[in-house]
Amino acid sequence: MCDPHSLSAMLTEGDVTLEPLAECHLDDLRAACAEDQEIWDIYPVSMLNDHFDEAMKRFHATDNWVQFAVIYQNKLVGMSNYINSDAVNGVVEIGGTYIAPSVRGTGCNDAMKRLMINHAFANGYRRIEFRVDGRNTRSRAAVLKLGATQEGILRKNRITWTGYIRDTYVFGLMKDEWNR
Fold first, then answer.
1. pLDDT tier at 150, thresholds 50, 70, 90
2. Is 17 strand, coil or helix?
3. 9-20: b or e for each residue (b if 16 or more CB lie within 10 Å)?
4. S-S: 67 plus which of 21, 85, 87, 104, CB 3.0-4.6 Å?
5. CA distance 112 to 122
6. SS3 call for 10
7. CB 174 within 8 A of CB 90
8. d(Cα 100, Cα 73) in Å, to the nearest integer?
9. What is the 8-class DSSP label of residue 36?
10. Range of weakest confidence among 29-38, 59-68, 138-147
11. 35-55 burial, b if ≥16 CB within 10 A, otherwise e?
């Protein structure tokens, strides 16, 4: 049986540490989010400037998210989350991920996702989902590189903060498919 409360833990692999997101992380997270002014146009919410505080309020008001600060080489560089944990069916989504441009291509994202995937599977989950905006080709490629399978496209299913009605690509990764 899955224990959704056990998902919130400090996780470490090499230069990457995931810490449960806390108030002490917010200033550094705000700065990391500001490093990429253009990427927020393809996110469901913006975390730039005045939007940051509102996004944090929304995330904290959601009790079915487990949020992490992503620390790379002792510097906060982003965030990621477990979303909509379904302990009865053993399914959890990993999403809401952002890492600063300065660490893209360094292996940080891969290590972070490995930590989260291994931790979820170790806590009884059997399936992990990823939901990605169709325009976000970088994230779609990263999810496929992890070994997830694209299972479908939810057409025009979400309205983003800009008013854009996006297609959401859905990927799944089963425990018995994971070998890292």
1. very high
2. strand
3. eebeeeebbbbe
4. 21
5. 15
6. coil
7. no
8. 13
9. -
10. 59-68
11. ebeebbebbbbbbbeeebeeb
- Regarding pTM above 0.85, the answer is yes
Element (H, E) at 80: strand 75-86
CA-nearest of 108, 110, 105 to 145 is 110
DSSP string across 96-136: EEEE-GGGTTTTHHHHHHHHHHHHHHHTT--EEEEEEETT-
What residues contact residue 13 under an 8 Å CB cut-off, 6+ apart? 111, 114, 115
CA neighbor of 63 nearest in space, from 122, 5, 125, 123: 5
Residue closest to 52 by CA, chosen among 76, 78, 26: 26
pLDDT the model gives residue 64: 84
The Cα-based distances of 22 to 44, 45, 86, 110 in angstroms read 22, 20, 23, 23
Q: What are 38's two structure tokens?
A: 């253009």
Rounded Cα–Cα distance for residues 4 and 167 (Å): 28
Helices (H) and strands (E) in the chain, counts: 4, 8
Q: Is the pLDDT of residue 136 over 90?
A: yes
Collect all residues with Cβ–Cβ distance below 8 Å to 144 and sequence separation of at least 6.
150, 171
